[in-house]
Amino acid sequence: AAIQEEPASKPSPPPPAAAAKKETPFVPSPQRKYKHFQNVELTPAGVAIIRFDNPDKKVNTLSFALMREAQTMWEADIQSNSEITSIVFTSAKESGFIAGADIFDISSVQDKSELVPVIEEALNFFLHMKAKDVPMVAAIHGPALGGGLEWALWCDYRICTDSKATKLGLPEVKLGLLPGFGGTQNLPALVGIQGAMDMMLTGKNILPAKAKKMGLVDLVVAPQSLESVAIETAEGLANGTVKKSKPKKKSLINRLIEDTPPGQNLMWSKVKETVDKNTDGNYPAPYEIIDCVKYGLAHPGMEKFKHEREGFAKLAATKESEALIGLFDGTTQMKKLSSGAEPIKVKKVAVMGAGLMGAGIAQVTAEKGYDVLLKDRDDAAVGRGISYMTDNWEKKCKRKRMTNYELNTNSSRVTPLSDDTESWKRHFAGADLVIEAVFEDLALKRKIIQQVEEVTPDHCVFATNTSAIPIADIAAPGEEVKRSENVVGMHYFSPVPQMPLLEIIPHAGTSDEALATAFAVGNKQGKTCVVVKDVPGFYVNRCLGPILSEVTALVKEGVPLDRLDKAMKKFGMPVGPITLIDNVGVDVASKVSNYLASADLGVRMGGGDLSLLSNMVEKGWLGKKSNQGFFTYSGKKGKPSIGPEVTAYLKDFTGGNTSDLSETDIQNRIVSRLVNEAAMCLQDEIIENPVCGDIGLVFGIGFAPFRGGVFRYLDSVGTSSFVDMMNGYAETNGQQFEPVQLLKDYAASGKKFHGN
User: Of 69, 503, 550, 688, which is the active-site residue?
Assistant: First the structure.
């Protein structure tokens, strides 16, 4: 396609932030004195029950407004009431305890240093609560995350339910922040330094059984018993029949590690080594968390809390935190379909094809409560799919992420079927959604639609998991396809259970109802859904094509493979491009790149030599799956290496060329090809807005999360300077670097893709 010279069409603005939703004005009454709390209840034994509950929100969050109201409530109902002997904090919401701090409060503060006195006021309130000197119990059902867990850590006793919905954690690091309400000090004191660092540096959720084992909670009870047990415990704490929670007793080895100078030196060295390896130094939050904990150990007084909140404000001002919060906000926004259409009610999902993709789709579908029909050509193929799911579930059981009961329940939801199963048509008569995951063959896919339409009800939606074939071709009305309006694309990424993204692709005739159904099922499967236009490569693979082309160009110039990988890892990608090609399969990468080169991208797929990949496929070098790609894979423990055959092949391919291209040039050339295509997708309305573009490439190919996605990255470096850089490469390397019109427009106007 020729480069457009006329101004590009204006892209759709991002959907309004979740914070923009208006709340109902609160008017106090005797029945409801507070907006964020139900009225305090006092039992005959003197237990004050404080229930978090904002009727305008599905979940409780620690907002600035809640913290102010908590102080008002405390002074009015708790502080001077001598009848109160103990306190229980719990939630009136079935959805959970407290899901964390209100992140949009933090984003709304322009000068992040202003957060320091806000956090100090909150911390002083927690200290004021403790100063009343009555036992406090946290009764937790559902999520207690971030500030929610920090509130519980100020209590004397913690009880949680054994519900699957209950999880405890400090996930602030995922937003580029640290726990700011005393968490970096109170958590290590309770569960030990190593356990606390693991929680805070990974942001992982802790389930009830493990929480009890590590000393994070004192009791685990059934949900229906939570409040009564909490009240009884509070009474016992007040009269001395129940002892206050104490930090978990350390083993001898943990005392040697955590409580001796040599042990601490070794521990901190290992912690930093792990953080360096996992972050490549691109994320400041883990290092600030380490600093806060170490500072607290050296300064046991109140100064440690001051250091913590100053660290929080410092992190909140970083571009990394802004980017990660932007991704969090974007993910929240994308849980709703902009059209507002109603999906059909789906109870039974049929999956056609029991290979890795089909079995993965069946797995995530069964895990979310759907009845699943898994069909393939014969019993052996279906058996392999069932084994794949069962193996994955058994691994989850071993890691305590699933119970045996849940494994058996999930397994019971899956009905294996083959062409030889006489009853398969009767089973399919009850399907509400069919997801096809067979080979990339247009005739085969249309034949399957024909088979499915003959046996399924008229409302049944047919979704194809193609990664390349246009949905319009698959859905074209004809002898095989009668219900074209029910056909939609659902492009999953491999491995399906791990990859969070799902591209949903309507063709021009897809009904709003079919689109909404695919979106609703994808959401329930736990995927982040991006609706994209029906074009070659859709969005993610379309953006990946020019990267593959540029990688072949760099290899042709003689840039060493390990330097390519190291440069992009340092940029923030999870793996380098050479390792990525080996992981997805050289044959897959070759097929995608050649398909896109013959599609409508024109010069934007130029500049490379795709024979690099196709020749490797002919040699049988298919990547990791064949133990030979660019790298040779000798076993699970063996480090991938470049063998003599590949070295000879590359020497022949490059003509003996060698290149000492700088790390920055490697990064800029690869990233600019990706960003340019993403901008073209926005310009051509293949994606709805920059938020979709950012989420799609972060979740689809792992674009550096700390950069917030391609469009936040452009805002950060400046579109004008980025266009200048691309123009420079266009002059020296060719037209494939010519910036698309949308980038030129934004560069000329100084506009940003996010915000003003």
Answer: 503
